[in-house]
TrEMBL record:
SUPFAM superfamilies: NagB/RpiA/CoA transferase-like. InterPro entries: 6-phosphogluconolactonase_DevB, 6PGL, Glc/Gal-6P_isomerase, NagB/RpiA_transferase-like. Coiled coil: none annotated. NCBIfam families: pgl. It catalyses: 6-phospho-D-glucono-1,5-lactone + H2O = 6-phospho-D-gluconate + H(+). GO terms for biological process: carbohydrate metabolic process; pentose-phosphate shunt. Residues 8-208 form the Glucosamine/galactosamine-6-phosphate isomerase domain. This is 6-phosphogluconolactonase. Its EC number is 3.1.1.31. The keyword Hydrolase applies. Pathway: Carbohydrate degradation; pentose phosphate pathway; D-ribulose 5-phosphate from D-glucose 6-phosphate (oxidative stage): step 2/3. Keywords: Hydrolase. It comes from Phenylobacterium deserti. The keyword Ribonucleoprotein does not apply.
Length: 221
């Protein structure tokens, strides 16, 4: 793994947005449609802000999420709300958004894959999407041969400790490019340990050579 280091959040967001826009534009040019898997948290907001200015045909772009919290779609904790407020504004509002909750869209996700671009964050416990250490069915979610696109995650783990829906590892690997956005020294240490072989969920993405993975880091959020 080569860690891409950026001096600031703005510089990281510029690079991530450019990389994702390039992947979406390529999908539109070669296949007539494109797909983006987004994420919640703090890191993607500035990327969404920049993608709003992407000069692509958003009406032919499908957007979904790597995970979702099982809360009201208007709740501040909802990842869908972040996407609606930060990305699906102006021209990008023409994109087709596929929520993960309350009904996991297995068939739609399967038809959509392989995804052109997947944007992920990572927790200090090494989780990606909501494939969180301590989940009772984590092994199922991390099984690369699992045919399911999504996995329900029980309440009581994660922050906040609410029930969730997550894409499985096998569905994340049905992608053409994965972007992992991290910030701060603690997460840099986690990604280094994972790259060295530590048993974190993110390790499964770093260790494979099926899908290109870019890990972008800045010192602060």
């Amino acid at each position: 793994m080569k860690l891409e280091v950026f001096p600031s959040t703005d510089a990281l967001a510029d690079a991530a947005a450019f990389g994702i826009e390039t992947r979406l534009a390529e999908g539109l040019k070669t296949r007539g449609r494109a797909s983006l898997v987004g994420t919640g948290g703090r890191s993607p907001g500035p990327v969404y802000d920049r993608l709003r200015n992407a000069r692509i045909d958003w009406a032919r772009v499908l957007v979904t999420l790597c995970d979702e919290r099982c809360v009201d779609p208007e709740a501040p904790e909802a990842n869908a709300r972040t996407v609606r407020e930060r990305l699906l504004v102006g021209e990008p509002a023409k994109a087709h958004f596929i929520p993960l909750w309350p009904e996991p869209p297995e068939d739609a996700l399967r038809a959509l894959s392989p995804f052109d671009a997947v944007m992920l964050g990572m927790g200090e416990d090494g989780h990606v999407a909501s494939l969180i250490p301590g989940a009772s069915n984590l092994a199922e979610g991390m099984d690369p041969a699992n045919p399911a696109m999504t996995l329900p995650i029980q309440a009581g783990i994660g922050t906040p400790p609410v029930a969730r829906i997550s894409l499985t590892l096998s569905s994340l690997l049905k992608s053409r490019a994965i972007f992992i956005l991290i910030a701060g020294d603690a997460k840099r240490e986690v990604i280094a340990r994972a790259d060295a072989g530590a048993d974190y969920p993110v390790r499964a993405l770093l260790a494979q050579d099926q899908v290109p993975v870019r890990v972008l880091w800045s010192p602060t959020h």
